[in-house]
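This part of the workshop introduces the protein records we will be handling. Backbone structure tokens are a discrete shorthand for how the chain folds in space. Once this layout is familiar, the rest of the handout is easier to follow. The record below serves as our worked example for the rest of this section.
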Amino acid sequence: MAKELKGVQVFAPATVANLVCGFDVLGMALQQPQDVMTMRLREEPGIVISHADGYDLPVEPEKNVAGASLLALMEEYPEKVGFELIIDKRIKPGSGLGSSAASSAGAVVGANHLLGNPFTKEDLVRFAMNGEKVASGVKHADNIAPCIYGGVTLIQSIFPLNIVQLTAPPMYVTVVHPQIEVRTSDARQILRKEVQLKAAIKQWGNIAGLVAGFLKNDYDLIGRSLEDVIIEPVRSILIPGFDDVKRKSKDAGALGGGISGSGPSIFMLSREEYVAKGVEDVMIDVYTRLGIEFKTYVTMINYEGAKVISEV
């Protein structure tokens, strides 16, 4: 075996998929919240999973997103290996903040470290996409890629996999997670299978504008491009208070934002911290008035992605 270690502790960050207009192709890693995972090599082949949280998720490897990702990695590793995995989920499942991606990515990043890093980051994304298939029925990478690479990523192609890391100017990210669940699989089923050419052209312009805004550090262009004319109008009906949060957040100075992944979380980007905290006040007010429990975060872009923080 490549590298004998007792075990490692891994942090795996929350992510914002789509970034409003980039459905299934754009994603961003956040500094908070993060899942914590402890992994150990086992003498016997196989995977043993346990949870240090209260979410009652499956522990059978084939039914668990981290387990499915590890199985894919193990298929390409030349020796028989085994892993013990303890997952402490601090990103609530069904939050729209890449909870399944964090488990999937954290597991393969930790396993790769324990094995002496034989796999590339692109390999790890491929493996972790198997976890997303367990979660939503689709091998999408818009959460997985930023979770592993950090920062902002563009999925130019899934088959073959082509991930482009994008530079982005410093920005604050304000997130509200209303304590309701929107299942990714359900949020996909309600989407239209066909779109009007006029809407597609508008969307292409926004995606290109957002990427150009990131690369040019052009905050105004970023703000103008944070518009979705295809997905958001359909999915936003599943999220109480969405329209109020978006309108009032922009009035408070946010560059813009929208649904994080499939929801129900909503994110807003801001140039300055005081604006981001003002946006948080808006979010608190909207959901307090609605009588819906919620959790908020004011954070920034995570440029490192999932990482081993200690050996245990």
